[in-house]
Batch of 3 targets.
Target 1
Amino acid sequence: MPVVARIAQFAAAMTVWRRDLHVHPETAFQETRTAEFVAGKLESFGLRAHRGLARTGVVASLEGRRPGGRAIALRADLDGLDIQERNEFAHCSRTAGKMHACGHDGHTATLLGAARYLAETRDFQGTVHFVFQPAEENEGGGRIMVDDGLFKSFPADAVYAMHNWPGLEAGTFAVREGPIMAAYDVFEIVVKGRGAHGAMPHQGVDPVVAASSLVQALQTIASRATNPLDAVVVSTTQIHGGDTWNVIPDQVALRGTTRAFKPELQDHIEAAIKRIARGVCAAHGATEEVRYERRYPPTINASEPTAAAVRAAVAVVGETHVVHNVEPSMGADDFAFMLRVKPGCYILLGNGPRDNGRALHSSRYDFNDAILPVGASYWARLVELELAEGA
Ligand SMILES: [Zn+2]
Ligand SMILES: [Zn+2]
């Protein structure tokens, strides 16, 4: 795979960093070892590491050789997941129940590689901020970085992120202008009936039957209540109720997640869930309590930064290895919070085949070390092209 020659020279070191991080996964806001690892590396490259933004975030800034110019921020994520790793290689997680199953170990090592190269060369005009954020998975560390003043302390004209992508050829980039990842919300519906003997259902109000109807009815939000040209997912992923064979319980809890690309559809889905829950429960004589929680907005790539990302990707791997209008994913990323306040671009980098559990969030996933120098070269070229003199 074509990469910047200087970066190729220390690709083996990047693999060592990546595997070290993989051995020691940490989850949301507990990334203290990871943050120290990152800060230590940045300092060894001669950069000043700012610790503690969003608790365990780390940021470092680098000025180019030539004064003035614009500033851009490059973001990586630090956290692992609550998954028991089922791999058997030497760099397997040594923390029970936690693993880097989304490749954030790779993202961190990639951005560190870029920081090392750029600190050596500084062949640009302006400022680059290396942003290592905690808690991408579920907890919205990206939002807290912004709320904690990320862009006040480190002003940037644009912000960029990269995510590895299993199922896309290793070393191929894929990107699109507009939404690339969906908005992510969660819901909980407690269906309240009245418990009874399992043999005498007429003496109670059965929340199990009401909840069963509700699971079906929620599917009509996507199929009947939304413009077919708008992608919407409503997935009920948990049903909790009952303790034994012959007792109808008092209540049943349903939980799930919703996805959409347009913020206004989040309002639409929330209203529809409440309406349908109310109607279906009423039809069964039950009542309901609905909690709908906004998690991440959609990840929306801006026009100019997307063009810049494409230029950088093409400069590294060539036109034939850049997919320009990739299909968006219904997955979500809290980089969306940064894109809500700054124009920017989220690009995908192929991690190779998805078979044999090599999918994101699989207990058999592993980041492909061969793409570390490709990713670092992309960051390097993005900075050199975007912060070229007079750009
Ligand atoms: Zn993930
Ligand atoms: Zn991820």
Target 2
Amino acid sequence: MTAASDRQLTIAVAAGKGGTGKTLISTSLAQAMVRAGEAVQVLDCDVEEPNADILLHPRITGSEVVNILVPEVDMESCIHCGKCAKACEFAAIAVIGQAVVTFHDLCSGCGACAYVCPTGAINEVPLRIGQIVSGTAEGGIEFHQGRLDIGHQRAGPVTTELKRHISDEMITIIDAPPGTACPMQEAVDDSDYCILVTEPTPFGLANLREAVDTSLRLGVPCGVVVNRDRGGYEDMERYLADEELTVLMRVPERRAIAEAYSRGETLLGASDEWLGELQDMYGEVAEQVAQEAAL
Ligand code: SF4
Ligand code: SF4
């Protein structure tokens, strides 16, 4: 099951809000595809609150530090022109009278301040913002997880480093951060497909609308998994039909699933009945990607 370009698919699993079962679906899909004989890797891009390890139980074998380059000002060379502060989109550097103040927790490491400084007073020095841990989970799933250090706000550089691990040789499943803000967009961007997990509530529907808009704006085709489905939520059904969204799977609200989750197990821990459904979902996704590529 390869993409049209003869490389394996990269599939993001996202949700308009936290707690909808996004990680449950991404890890279950990874396990189902490994059981289908595929090589699979999981990238946990929910770097502010990563938790795919709780369901996949990987054996961690390595880690790497993620740094960004932040400005360090040599006040001997500074002429207090203010160009650095003007160039910064994140208000991470300010010139106040004869002083230049930097706020490294706001800095994205873009380097613009050093670039515009007319006297070369700004040196760029590494600052640790997080790490990536890597290992292997059951069935040979390759596992990479980004972890943003406490006190840092810029998830983007960790996600970027994490996505460097994407291999064309394996199905890549990206567990994206919840919501539709920059961290989610950075995780989903450039994926072949985005599986959007939702739940049949007014809140779930409002978030799903935003997530669909975001995915399509990124140019990433998407389909929907309705989790904790109880049936009969007409507003959501109407929306799915009106937007012609593919419902890839419906996971019912069931005690056995909740119990498996609380034990740190995926859908396959609840019942093998999900194996075929998850593999069929992958098949549907691959077919849609192939159709898009053929357009
Ligand atoms: S590196 Fe970029 S974000 Fe950081 S202070 Fe300089 S201009 Fe601002
Ligand atoms: S751009 Fe350079 S010289 Fe001008 S205020 Fe900033 S650090 Fe000082």
Target 3
Amino acid sequence: MRRQLICINCPRECHLEATQNADGEITVTGNGCARGVAYARQELTDPRRVVTAVVHTTSETMPWLPVKTAAPLPKQDIAPLLNRLYQMTVEVPVSCGETILADVGGTGVNVVATTECVV
Ligand code: SF4
């Protein structure tokens, strides 16, 4: 398997080429530093993303609360999470950083509020 990637770890945006051989060994070229190798290996073996969304609240003045995952989530867990979040209604008050949903899909990753909602 061979993939072209752009490293997102710094503004240099190195163009990486990651190759995985039959034994599973991954070689990376085009990286400006070791973080690019780690990024490419993660993308080939366990790609993850921080997820941002909004959830409905019981507030009349702030009916939608912005939330995000507290850590990157495996990509296969993103669609189920979004389906769940869009069906939720959160009771106010909520403080910034408060956990809205714990241990998404058994990953240990929580969804937290990114702002407060008091009324
Ligand atoms: S490989 Fe290193 S230098 Fe290149 S974009 Fe990634 S972090 Fe920046």
